[in-house]
Amino acid sequence: MEHHPPRLRILLVDDQPLFRRALATLISAQFDMTVVGEGENGRDALEKARALHPDLVVMDVNMPGASGVDGVAAIRQAGMTTPIVMLTVSEDDDDLFESIKAGANGYLLKNVRPEQLFDDLRGVMRGEAPIAPAVASKLLEALRTGGIPARGQTAPSAAPDSGLTRRESEILQLVADGLSNKEIANQLTITEGTVKNHVHNALEKLHLTNRVQAAAYAVRQGYAHPEGTRD
User: Fold this and answer.
1) What is the structure's pLDDT at 167?
2) Rounded to an integer, what distance in angstroms lies between the CA atom of residue 167 and that of residue 198?
């Protein structure tokens, strides 16, 4: 008898019913994904996340009543660590930065190809942090100038005060360079589980909530290689 892996349970939050239903149909057609609930604003996101316990939330940014940023913040304040990916038409700097500071795990644009979207959603569950190429340069530039501290925090003044071990700092640099846990494990010749543990410990020490914020810290501290210089 053939056994299939558990399907990724996704909560969709978007105020446009036609788009939401179409995306739900496309997602549920994937062999490893299913949509378990839908909402139309950030308030719905919190209520349905509490009720349904999805594996992943895919949410628009600009919605009436309560925005996607409000939804991310509310979910994080409720103590839930459910991965959240913003899927939006907005390339606005404030929408991008506020989403990341609130605790979003990725920021994608609605012009993404369906196949790429599905791959990105799978990547989030492996600990990756997808950012649309059209806005990635804005994020990197802001991070380099220290413009995006973690939510509720100021940028640390010096890396040695972080309490990170040498290995944690090394892995943080590779996270900032865009490597996945699997790629980091292969490069350092350690297990993927060990990488996850080091990333988790680094986040705890830095009081950060996700890999995007960890990458921001690394860039501010000069851990990350300038573009084009990593071997």
Assistant:
1) 83
2) 8
Three-state SS for 131? strand
The pLDDT mean for the chain works out to 83
Same structural domain, 77 and 179: no
pTM of the model: 0.66
Residues 60 and 127 reside in one and the same domain: yes
CA distances from 70 to 10, 45, 214 (A): 19, 9, 21
The candidate with the shortest Cα–Cα distance to 67, out of 19, 15, 20, is: 15
Residue 13, strand partner residues:
39, 59
Same domain membership, residue 171 and residue 114: no
- The answer to whether the beta carbons of residues 47 and 75 sit under 8 Å apart is no
What residues form DSSP beta bridges with 12? 38, 58
Cβ atoms of 10 and 100 within 8 Å: the answer is: no
Are 183 and 94 within one domain? no
Cβ 162 vs Cβ 156: under 8 Å: yes
Q: Cβ distance 65 to 43 under 8 Å?
A: yes
Residue 131 is which amino acid?
Answer: I
Number of domains in the chain: 2
Tokens 């036609």 sit on residue: 18
135 with 166, same domain? no
Tens-place pLDDT, residues 153-180: 433 333 444 577 878 888 888 887 778 8
What pairing do the DSSP bridges indicate for beta strands 33-39 and 84-88?
unpaired
Indicate the angle between helix axes 133-144 and 93-102, nearest 10 degrees: 70
